[in-house]
Amino acid sequence: MYSVRMSTPDRLIEATRALLWERGYVGTSPKAIQQAAGAGQGSMYHHFAGKPDLALAAIRRTAEELRAAAEAALGGEGTADARIEAYLRRERDVLRGCPVGRLTMDPDVMASDELRAPVDETLDWLRGRLAGIVQEGLERGELTGPLDPEALAATVVATVQGGYVLARSSGSAAAFDTAVDGLLMLLAAHKGRVE
Amino acid sequence: MYSVRMSTPDRLIEATRALLWERGYVGTSPKAIQQAAGAGQGSMYHHFAGKPDLALAAIRRTAEELRAAAEAALGGEGTADARIEAYLRRERDVLRGCPVGRLTMDPDVMASDELRAPVDETLDWLRGRLAGIVQEGLERGELTGPLDPEALAATVVATVQGGYVLARSSGSAAAFDTAVDGLLMLLAAHKGRVE
DNA sequence: GTCTATAAGTGGATAGAC
DNA sequence: GTCTATCCACTTATAGAC
After folding, report:
1. Nearest-neighbour CA in chain A from B5: distance (Å)
2. Nucleotide closest in space to A29 (CA vs C1')
3. N or C end of chain A: which has fewer CB within 10 A?
4. Which long-range contacts (CB under 8 A, 24 or more apart) does A62-67 make?
5. Average pLDDT over all residues of chain A
6. Which of A26, A158, A159 sits opposite B24 (nearest CB)?
7. Distance in angstroms: CA B18, C1' C1
8. Domain regions of chain B by residue span
9. Is the pLDDT reported for residue A194 higher than 70?
10. Region A8-188: CATH code
11. Tens of pLDDT, residues B139-157
């Protein structure tokens, strides 16, 4: 039950975000959303056309938040390798998984172009942002080749997404950290000299 | 509808495997299983106690198959790095995702110790198997340090699991391959000399 | 072993009163 | 804007006949 100080649409969106994160789209019912939001049936259908419409609003908000959190780590002032490490080590609710990435395993989300778009765009933006940082690092001598920026960026994002899988499977956040440690260990061989 | 030459329990298990892979546990109903298996309601409940029981049989079979497929690539004769590369590049139904890993995003699977066990055990076995190969590679000089076998193994598994996420998100298997390319590129710096 | 009947509850929504 | 009533299909079974 979200704060009464939030508007009903906001409470509905926040409840949907939490449920999508925890149970996915298929596992989330309008009824569950209404109960979590403290809103009635009629109220929900007054503000949103239905479950897909509400899910879209929730997914967009979650995607935007993820982007902001990633940018906070990636947009810093340090060297390329330091910013990538900051991103990899940023605080996460590891056992809950990635609120955006988990949607890729949801058949109904993937079947809808509208619902799928924010997911695709977010992960794509992240890869591009990381690739740019790697490229920059190579140009500045903070990273030394041979290193393909696009490939490294994809590996970084994949390690994070897969780290969530390992953590949830084992029931321990440590598995995520171990995967990140392994990636940073491999990356260490490509650190350039500080000038 | 599976081959009539399969026993009814087998057809039910195979149908469940396919549906779990595609739609997850939450998204799979007994009715859908029965239709895919060409079996009636009564038939299904005669052979299995219910949905969780049938899912357990399906998950166990899928886990065993995954293990066999991984071992086929990892148990070969080549150098450590060649076997890891063989594992990473083995043929996969990339856009369908990992039939075991996707279950970690299923709330009902994670909530059940019985259903979760085969998932955890499979990914854990895989990590251990890879770590052993890395260790062996270091001892034989096929790989050169500094390289923590456990961490590298976790990164390899995470890259694969995350590669599926990237591929499904973008709708293209190429995203998986790019993530794998990035990992192999990083690993290349640790290849020892062939004696 | 397989089939049909039955059932209480949920899923996802529409209609109309307040 | 929010509430209650109503709807039909689906979910996840159980019971008992064949």
Report:
1. 30
2. C11
3. C
4. A62/A17, A62/A20, A62/A21, A62/A99, A62/A100, A63/A100, A63/A118, A63/A119, A63/A121, A63/A122, A66/A98, A66/A99, A66/A100, A66/A122, A67/A122, A67/A125, A67/A126
5. 97
6. A26
7. 24
8. 8-188
9. no
10. 1.10.357.10
11. 999 999 899 999 999 999 9
